[in-house]
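Run log, item B.
One chain of 212 residues. Sequence copied directly from the ordering sheet:
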Amino acid sequence: MAVLVGKKAPQFNAQAVINGSEFVDNFSLDQFLGEKHVILFFYPKDFTFVCPTELHAFQEKLEEFESRKTAIVGVSTDTEQSHWGWLQLDKSNGGIKGVTYPLVADTNKTISKNYDVLAGDYFYDDNDMLQASGELVAYRGLFLIDKEGIVRHQIVNDLPLGRNVDEALRMVDALQFNEENGEVCPANWNKGKTGMQATHQGVAEFLEKHVN
């Protein structure tokens, strides 16, 4: 798997659904450069089981992300029409009605491939026929991208394993704490806790105060 941390986030322009119902062409992360951090997350399929729990969980925390000037963007290999249909379906029926952040349609699978979260791949068999190994959907990848378009954190879960949205929010807090204070965040750091200086003396002082 490609490690994108420290590198420019792969660019894309794609169809998307925003505000729960509006189709847009050429959706891009460029709109957030210099303005917002971005949580870009991939999920396998519309109209499934674990996926709606994740999408609703991000929606429930959306105000908290927005208060931190952080945009949430979801991506799957479904079409924009599929996204729209799922967005019209009530939660009680397995739908995601009420989700307002953008859902990008990676129908060519190029976004998932460029972020290296595509499960399966294409290959040619002995008869020179194009085949596919595995199901060509996205793993549950998540990328935290800063205002300069640099990936600062990434995590990828296998298809059955749902993500922890609170952990994504914690990583946003940790990144912004580092950007604002110049201090680093120790293990199990949460917003409101102290950081430490990235020096031997700073580490020693932190351990003396906080570790028995």
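Observations after the first pass:
- The mean pLDDT is 93.
- The longest strand covers residues 130-138.
Flagged for discussion on Thursday.
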